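#lab-general

N.A. 3:47 PM
ok so I finally got the sequence cleaned up, no stray characters, all 240 residues accounted for. can someone with queue access submit it? mine expired

B.Y. 3:52 PM
send it over

N.A. 3:53 PM
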Amino acid sequence: MSPNLLISFRGRLRQRRNLGRHRRTLNAMTGMDQFRSYVKRVRPDQFLFYESRSSEKRLEFQSVTGVLGVNLHGTRFLDIGPGYGDALDVCSENGASRIEFVETDPFFFTYNRLKGFAQGHEIDLKTELSTLHPMQFDFIWVKGSISPDNVIFRVNPEAVNRHLLTHWLSQLEKLSAPHGRIVICPYWLHDGQKRRSDDVGRSFFTETLLKSGYRVLPRIENHNREPEYPVTFHKIVGVP
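B.Y. 4:20 PM
back already:
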């Protein structure tokens, strides 16, 4: 193993240990005041970053629901990787009847759990969606929690990735109620200016989603942006 890879491996191992330590403390919390005090003390970078962008993330979600004409009142909503939970908040404020989320980061999971209106599932979004009850949700939101570049499955060759992505989509769609909506906006890796994938339209990720019945939405103001979120996919399950 090269020195750089060894350093990277040790860094990831240290991060996992730290998250495990935080998870034990956070899982025992019963109130938001406890959580806020802990965050103030340990200063988790990722949580604080998304907290600072909360108003922007709310607007991103509201822009999509506005373009699609989604009425959130009475909606059964599932967020795959909610982060700070801005979409969860918007759904609650607009009268969604059921709000659930899938999250493994202990800070985001605990924060959204302690809000009191959403049920959380601390499961792997890549491999454990089948553990959720099927046909439960009218609107499934997947924003930024998957990346076509490290392809959440991290395997080669591309044909295997296509197969695994198709299988993952089938698991996701089994969670949808008849005529439920699924919106997927993946995160594309970049160096700050240029995406790793030059041609989003010809990527295996896009081609696989199109073959699975998704369509690309027109660019949505305040939601799509270059270089990380250039494209959003939408499907109404059971509608050709």
